[in-house]
Amino acid sequence: MEYDFLLASCIFLSAAVIVVPIAKLTGLGSILGYLIAGVIIGPYALGLVSDPQTILHFSEFGVVMMLFLIGLELQPREFWNMRVRLIGLGIPQVLLTAIAIAAVAVWFTVPWQSAIILGLGLALSSTAIVLKLIDERGIMQRSVGRSAFSVLLVQDVAIIPILAIIPFLAIPELVSYSADDGHSVAAVSETSWQAGWRVALVFSVMYLVGRYLLRPIIRMIAKAGIREIFTAFSLLLVVVSALLMNWINLSPALGAFMVGVILADSEYRHELETNLEPFKALFLGLFFISVGMSIQFSILTEHTGLIFGMLFGLAAIKMIVLFVLAYVFKFHIADKFLFAFLLSQGGEFAFVLFQFAPTVGAMDPFLADLLNVTVALSMILTPILLIIFDRIIAPHLKALQSNDREDDDIAVQNNVIILGYGRFGQIVTRLLSAQGFDTTLIDHDPEQIELVKKFDTKVFFGDARRHELLTSAGAHRAEMLVICIHNPETVSEIARMAQKHFPNLKIMARARDRYHAFDLMDIGIQGFERDTFHSALNLGIKALRELGRTEVQAGRIAKAFAKHDIEMLYEAYELRHDDEAMIGHVRTAREVLAQLLHKDLEELELELELAKDENKR
Questions:
Q1: Which of 89, 231, 399, 445 has the least CB density, counted as fewest CB within 10 Å?
Q2: pTM for the structure as a whole
């Protein structure tokens, strides 16, 4: 037994180490790599591991930990901020998708009871896959990421009523299957009324314990300084929450998520994240591998046409519903497709539903097998759809997104035109406005424009790369153009165009880094500022003060450093096409800087001594 476990572990890890990096390097992504690895080593391919179901249940723990970590990132008040998405996107997605799929199933002569379960089960999406994709793309803080997360939350909650109604949808002709397995529809039905009070009790206890008991315990363990005990306690929190959710027939991942939310404002939140992150990644990888292993190729080969018809039908229905909802919520055109593709698959909880339904006589076992294969294949289809989105759809939509809204008519003409009203542009605007300068604000992000409109700030929509737009904004009469756009290529393109069409216009530009600064200098722009230079410099001043330098010393050092760095920037500009000369210049600059700062500190100390002597006199 021990040998079999070690052998299976070796096979799993070997498959992951070999296949996943190859998939990542070829652009297929890590999720598709894990799924392919599972197919290869599974019982229906090479047969290296013969029991994927056991490993699937074990590896679902990765999904549970993922939700716990996401909960740690959310403050409870954010649920109120997400209410529009939860109600407006999540609930309609589940209901509309379930109705559409159930209707198609009834049309294909599936009993209406099974059709309801089928529709509700397939309406759910894969929390593991979607959140992993969101994390890889870094879009959790974007509207499309938050919206997808809101839908997943509603789906996890929807599991409660879905499980409760399944026993009431038993088909008389199929009830014998339930009896053969030792299950009683009546017994299951009798416990359904208990779900409400169990849920209320468990969540109340979780909240009270999390608020008033867990935090003192965590604080005590942290003071003990035993890292492995802190890690063990972190895992214990996740396991206990999962057990509580199993007791009320609810998704374990949802319970872990709620515990994470309760602890979100704890001072040890980051320590909990650090301890569980490696486990999450490992178990999620096992989960994806086990999903690939669970695909029953015997059923797939015997009913290829039927299963692929179900697969593409499922994806089509879900994407249509999601796209319509994204349209109602006025997503960007690219985000509409991304939102629809992200949630187009079946979910891991569908495996549970389609295993449970036949045991209570609510679904034919053969239909459940077909659905399980379809759900597993849909999980493989999602990364492929996103590859198509990235390589084919997104490049075409980029141009379309730029043109799907006409530029605003700019009725005002001020002395200063500011392009880009993100974080950088807002600071520049506030500074100039505080000194009485009237500014014309232009941005190309409709979502950002709608956001700042709530604060009574008028920002015009338009593509500033078009000189006609700048003409309508009065660039031929304006005194200054300030380019605060994040994309360096766009900044350079606008600067080049503005110099050509408006030669008397002063141009100030945001530079991404030194090399972008070189590009702007090539164009002839001298009024530029690097993104993070002064913020990093100010942080360095604070660090020096904490390390024992006086405020005067830290300020003097920073001033000398800034002066030296700017001089070096212009010297490096002359060497930008000679790599060897540039490397030598950087090394020399470091030595010169150290000598310069040391000399400047000595001069400062001398000045202070002279000032003291003068005061004594």
A1: 399
A2: 0.59
Residue 87 DSSP one-character state: I
pLDDT at 595: 67
List of residues 6+ apart from 163 with CB closer than 8 A: 249, 353, 356
- Cite the residue boundaries of each domain of the chain with CATH code 1.20.1530.20: 53-401
| DSSP-assigned letters across all residues of 230-254 | HHHHHHHHHHHHHHHHHHTT--HHH
Q: Give the pLDDT confidence of 20-68 residue by residue, as tens digits.
A: 787 777 766 677 787 788 888 777 667 777 665 555 555 566 667 766 7
Cβ atoms 220, 233 nearer than 8 A: no
Across 385-512, the runs of DSSP E, i.e. the strands, are 416-419, 439-443, 460-461, 480-483, 506-511
Cα(444)–Cα(420) distance, rounded to whole angstroms? 7
- Does the structural domain 53-401 have CATH classification 1.20.1530.20? yes
Cβ 150 vs Cβ 81: under 8 Å: no
- Rounded to the nearest 10 degrees, how much is the dihedral formed by the CA atoms of 60, 62, 66, 68? 80
Q: What is the pLDDT of residue 99?
A: 94
Question: Per the CATH hierarchy, to which homologous superfamily does domain 406-531 belong?
Answer: NAD(P)-binding Rossmann-like Domain (3.40.50.720)
Q: Are 124 and 349 in contact (CB under 8 A)?
A: yes
